[in-house]
Amino acid sequence: MTDVTMDKIVSLSRRRGFVFPSSEIYGGMGSTYDYGHYGVLMKNNIRSLWFRAMVQERDDIVALDSAIILNPRVWEASGHVGGFTDPLVDCRTCKLRFRADQLDQSSCGRKPSKRPGETADCDLTDARQFNLMFKTQVGALEDESSTAYLRPETAQGIFVNFKNVLQLARRKPPFGIAQVGKSFRNEITPGNFLFRVREFEQMEMEFFVPPADAERWYRYWVDARFDWYLKYGVRESMLRKREHGEEERSHYSSGTTDIEYLYPIGWSELEGVANRGDFDLTQHTQHSGTKLEFVGEGDERYTPYVIEPAVSIERIFVAMLVDGYDEEVVAERDRTVLRLHPAVAPVKAAILPLIPKNGEMVEKARGLHEDLRKKHVVEYDDGGQIGRRYRRQDEIGTPFAFTVDDQTLEDDTVTVRDRDSLAQERLPIGGVAAWLEEALARPWRTPKA
Ligand code: GAP
Questions:
Q1: pLDDT digits over 408-420, tens only?
Q2: 334 vs 315: CA distance, rounded Å
Q3: Are strands 349-353 and 378-380 parallel, antiparallel or unpaired?
């Protein structure tokens, strides 16, 4: 367990406008969240860093954006209609629902709360299978023929486009298709803030390989994804790879490794990397009648195997907040600081006039802000005493603050303050843009133990 609690993360997220409960004025919507300004900026950064590593910096992966509502037969072929279920029990007394396989982690609705089934009043039903897909109706008719589903994963939209991409993007295995987008699951027990929600943004990549190379590529992607977290500053001591035993693996998988993070709830899945074999392409070939295979030179012809790294922005978002959250006492005052990697931090720099009523300082600070915002998300702040403005920037994880003060008016230099070390130095105001560029490109390691 870490000493950073989920309550502290929820409280900071709310206090600083990263994330708040959805539909709050109507009493919320059970484990559904809205993202405020800094949350949106941070999510954008996570998404684009993933996309950069998976698509932009590679020759062998292309992008896709498929629909959320697909032909319902897709979900029959994929096995989701028949098998995307969790075992559910109802309590006839407290009217709550629990996952039958997680009763030991659930709380009964009676007070003092115990585990479901532990009090004399508990009256649990037998377990039944509950499908996690959200059903909807498409078109004006409301009958069986119009039933459709909100996608519970982005992956199937990739498989059904395999032939299109193979032809139009002129690819041959090994190659991948990457997609980012919302997925929906009617989780029985959502919770732990954003860790398990009903609506989340998945980032998935399906990598199609010759069957004989599948094991090698599976190992490659487990390592590549693990290293991505290290690159963006997540502490190695908080990450681990955990390979599933045979009994734990999904029906389609011949190998799965979870990249786990030590969340405040304990070691839990951050990202999964699976060797899905030829399950998906074979299923869609059989159900659609369209052959999804690779036909090469001569008599080369095979159904590629698929290696899939899959993660949600939400799980990365929480892991990075937990990893960055720090509290310390500086000059006898408490400081809460988010030690985020500068590439992940929502705001890259703050520009602060020391005395907000001083017109000359404001003018110089505004000028610097106008200059820097052309390339980066930066923030001008003249609200309140300077110490409080620093604290505010610390709490949203802004790595650098440039302060315009009396000396600036004499020699056109500003102070730059480093969020992590609190070191300060002076720079010519004309050199700030280049300095920031260089500082943001430097490798970064957290000072957190
Ligand atoms: N296409 C494979 C697939 O969807 P999964 O393990 O069910 O596999 C992949 O999900 C990833 O999606 C997980 O590792 C996790 O990062 C994220 N995820 C799954 N369910 C989630 C939920 N209810 N809330 C937030 N993230 C979720």
A1: 999 999 999 999 9
A2: 28
A3: parallel
